[in-house]
């Protein structure tokens, strides 16, 4: 019963404080204002710890767009060498905070700086060594938006026309395997097909690995008895 009374008293005091609080326009996130009861009220900023830290940095550095930070700081941008990046998107699958993302419709690498922890996973595991870091704290609204770090034209399937993969990557692989003995004839064209068309083409090709005739007939007791001399 005492706990119920305590909860009711807290709810009553909270409602009274909200009713006596001035409108939001009269009291800012970092500016105290005087209430009708003669007490000062300060509206604290809401959000995650990273968002509150960015608000505090913006209040302490008015007019600044970004703050330079030392190496190893948990804030910063990801820099991608577009000449080396093949858009394999390994970094997207490894990013623990979701700062790196992809586009399901186009070969794109997207980045949101507010979510980046500068943990080093993407840079250490990038197969092309195309990722580096720029430690900083971006104070503009751009930090909360996704921006495209790298994008390329998709490659259309030569059979159905469905876009798949990255055009430059498919062309590079086709060029490297054009002189390979295992990719002679129509086999090289399968690299330029989507998954569905590639399976269909392989199934109907002359070298179909599944074209091995029917299954073997299981041996029965009659087969063994037929070879015995006493039967």
Sheet/helix structural class: alpha+beta
Rounded radius of gyration (Å): 32 Å
* Separation of the first and last Cα atoms: 95 Å
Neighbour order of strands in the largest sheet: 3-7-4
**CATH topology annotation of the domain at 66-151:** Alpha-Beta Plaits
Could you give the topology of this structure?
Blueprint: H1 2-20, E1 33-34, E2 40-41, H2 49-60, E3 66-68, E4 76-80, H3 90-94, E5 100-102, E6 108-112, H4 121-125, E7 131-138, E8 146-151, E9 154-156, E10 163-166, H5 167-177, H6 195-203, H7 221-226
Antiparallel strand pairs: 1-2, 3-7, 4-7, 5-6, 6-8, 9-10
Give a written overview of the molecule:
By secondary structure, the chain is of the alpha+beta class. Among the domains are: 66-151, Alpha-Beta Plaits (2-Layer Sandwich); 154-203, no CATH class. Helix content is 29%, strand content 18%. The chain is built from 7 helices and 10 strands. The strands form 4 sheets. A 3-stranded antiparallel sheet has the order 3-7-4. The radius of gyration is 32 Å and the shape is elongated. The model is unreliable at 1-26 (pLDDT under 50).
The gist of it:
The protein is α+β, with helices and mostly antiparallel strands. It has helices at 2-20, 49-60, 90-94, 121-125, 167-177, 195-203, 221-226; strands at 33-34, 40-41, 66-68, 76-80, 100-102, 108-112, 131-138, 146-151, 154-156, 163-166.
């Amino acid at each position: 019963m005492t706990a119920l009374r305590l909860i009711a008293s807290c709810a009553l005091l909270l409602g009274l404080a909200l009713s006596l609080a001035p409108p939001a326009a009269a009291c800012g996130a970092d500016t105290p204002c005087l209430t009708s009861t003669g007490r000062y009220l300060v509206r604290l900023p809401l959000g995650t710890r990273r968002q509150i830290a960015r608000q505090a940095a913006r209040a302490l550095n008015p007019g600044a767009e970004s703050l330079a930070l030392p190496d190893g700081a948990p804030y910063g941008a990801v820099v991608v060498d577009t000449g080396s990046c093949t858009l394999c998107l390994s970094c997207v699958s490894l990013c623990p905070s979701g700062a790196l993302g992809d586009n399901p419709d186009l070969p794109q690498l997207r980045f949101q700086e507010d979510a980046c922890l500068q943990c080093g996973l993407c840079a250490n595991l990038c197969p092309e060594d195309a990722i580096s870091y720029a430690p900083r704290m971006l104070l503009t609204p751009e930090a909360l938006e996704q921006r495209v770090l790298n994008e390329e034209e998709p490659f259309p399937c030569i059979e159905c026309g469905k876009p798949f993969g990255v055009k430059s990557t498919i062309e590079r692989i086709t060029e490297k395997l054009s002189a390979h003995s295992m990719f002679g004839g129509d086999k090289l064209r399968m690299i330029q097909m989507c998954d569905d068309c590639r399976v269909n083409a392989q199934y109907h090709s002359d070298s179909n690995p599944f074209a091995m005739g029917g299954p073997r007939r299981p041996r029965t007791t009659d087969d063994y008895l037929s070879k015995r001399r006493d039967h």
